[in-house]
């Protein structure tokens, strides 16, 4: 028998210095508790490890921009829906309101309600395949953006959460500034 003694260790555990793809980097600080980590914080995965203060600031700005993207996609969905309905009304000869007939007589209110119900039933619109595909892509964009924001939020990093809140506030202010309908403002004078 050969009784040679090897100089190599015979343990099955790997040498800690051998296979370190990120050996020159600091370890990721990914916490599931509330934290205010900046440098060495990891978001979503190891590839998104913050290595400097400037990179963390860019992450916060990027998070704000993601919330803007979410509101942008929501706004584009509303605008596109209005666009395809308007296009449908042009193709079919106008909206139901422009074709409304003035009713005179004793049962005016009942007949108006009946006419409104009939118009509502007659003027439902179902988008075409291409239109629905665009609507679906806009919805997918919203879901993906919201999911990334959720993954960032579960880092429980205070700065990232503040960035999400600030971005939500500013993006809603920018993209959802619509005219609010006032009840009774469109009633015809009798």
Q: How many alpha or pi helices?
A: 4
* DSSP helix fraction: 40-55%
Neighbour order of strands in the largest sheet: 1-2
| Count of extended strands | 2
Strand content: under 5%
Helix/strand order, N-terminal first? EEHHHH
End-to-end Cα distance = 115 Å
Mean pLDDT, all residues: 79
Shape: elongated
> Low-confidence parts lasting 5 or more residues at pLDDT below 50?
3-23, 96-104
Tell me about the largest β-sheet. 2 strands, antiparallel
User: Radius of gyration in whole Å, from Cα?
Assistant: 30 Å
Secondary-structure-based class equals mainly alpha
GO cellular component, one term: membrane
InterPro entries: Cop_transporter (IPR007274)
Region (Disordered): 90-121
Keywords: Copper, Copper transport, Ion transport, Membrane, Transmembrane, Transmembrane helix, Transport
How would you describe the overall organization of this protein?
This protein is mostly helical and 190 residues long. It has a domain at 42-96 and 113-175. 52% of the residues lie in helices and 4% in strands. It has four helices and two strands. Strand 1 and strand 2 (45-49) form a beta hairpin. Helix 1 (53-92) packs antiparallel against helix 3 (129-153).
